[in-house]
Amino acid sequence: MIPSAIPQELQDLTQVEEMLIAQALPIMRVYIKPGGQRGYSGQCINLPQNVKELATSLLRYPNELSVIIVQTKGPPTDNPSEDIIYNDSTEMSSFLPVGEQQQQEIEAVRNQLSENEPMPWPTIETGPINEYQISHLATMAFPTLFPDGKADPTNSGILRDVPLQERIKHLLKCAEQSGIFLKQNPGEAHLTIDELREMAASNNTNVFMSKLSRYVGNIAGTNAYWSRVREELKAIITSVGAPTLFCTFSSADMHWPELHALFKASTDCETGSSTSNVRRQNVINNPHIVDWFFTQRLESFVKHWLYETLGAKWHWFRYEYQGRGIHCHGTAKLNNDPGLCQLTQTALKGFLAQKFKDENDCSDTTELDQDIEAGQKAADTVCQYVDWLLSTVNPNPTDEDMWIRPEVHPCQRSHHDISEHEKQSDYADLLNMV
Questions:
Q1: 47, 25 Cβ separation under 8 angstroms
Q2: I need a labelling partner for 18 at 20 to 30 A (CA). Which of 105, 312, 343, 407 fits?
Q3: How many degrees, rounded to 5, is the angle at CA 214 between CA 213 and CA 217?
Q4: Full-prediction pTM beyond 0.70?
Q5: Per residue in 35-47, is it b (16+ CB within 10 Å) or e — as a string?
Q6: What would you measure as the largest C-alpha separation in the chain, in angstroms?
Q7: Mean pLDDT of the chain
Q8: What is the pLDDT of residues 226-253, one digit of tens each?
Q9: Is residue 70 within 8 Å of 118, Cβ to Cβ?
């Protein structure tokens, strides 16, 4: 299930040209995420497009196809001048000087635009296509992706019953891996597929795969990418020392009042289950906003608490997505770290020395006593540092049967709405419910 190569006739088409020859016109809501990645939300409909009209309207000789004007259908505006696609007064130059050859090209384009009448856009029917009954819908909508229908995920004639989600995953892997070797090694672009396969199966397999892996390492999510990131993290630890702490951040996306204020959702939890349903639907319909809000909170947390309050030296985070949503795992090293790894090793050595001394009769215990003393000092240092780092405990744990579950989740309350005498109980509620 690998797509065929794009034929020469369909190569280098513009987006408008590809839309003109598509038999189906997909309409969907597309947005751009904070990192630049595109996504979509809501429903997608496909309207049938009559490309026969365009095919019968095109000229038959290549020398007569210099310029084609395509005009979308629609009622004329109140201003007739706005309905003119091009006229002699259209500005085609800029503030830069225009050379003689460029001026001739501009005149040639102007002449062609003045002579040719606009060609109407292919007729688009109002009734959407039933994607459950029409086969090869992706080929109809994207002719350059599936020029001959091969590897079309909407092909209903596939012998194996493969879920659509798995088909899309397979195509994404093909898209990530296609052209990897040739892009990294343009000098060997003349090699055929058979020659590349022979190279991979020969004694030069290690050389071939080393070239391939270096390029794949730039693709986020691949094994080579995470291998490279792991080596970078190990290099940081080797250079500046082991991290002080490891932490996990979860998203309370169902409760944050500031997040749901962006959706204009009710934050009154006394209205019943309808508010919870609205919150859940807002999170489902707007994952890009939820991700953005989570990253903004995390960045503020790192800036104000990790660096300005605790005095971090460096940190490293990794975002993960599961069925529940986004969360983050991270590690950081603080500037005042006394060397916890080395201290714990020294404390363990002193503990073992004390145990050995208690269980055995030793004539000379000088070295053991030194290890015991050093271990005790190391243990005291670690305990004092942990007491500074973890300065609070749960004042009302659930195992004491004194805690009463609040009606409102603590994450749904704004900090400004919590009175001074409620802060300790709110802190206990937060620890017991998160």
A1: yes
A2: 105
A3: 80
A4: no
A5: eeeeeeeeeeebe
A6: 112
A7: 76
A8: 888 888 888 888 888 889 999 888 888 8
A9: yes
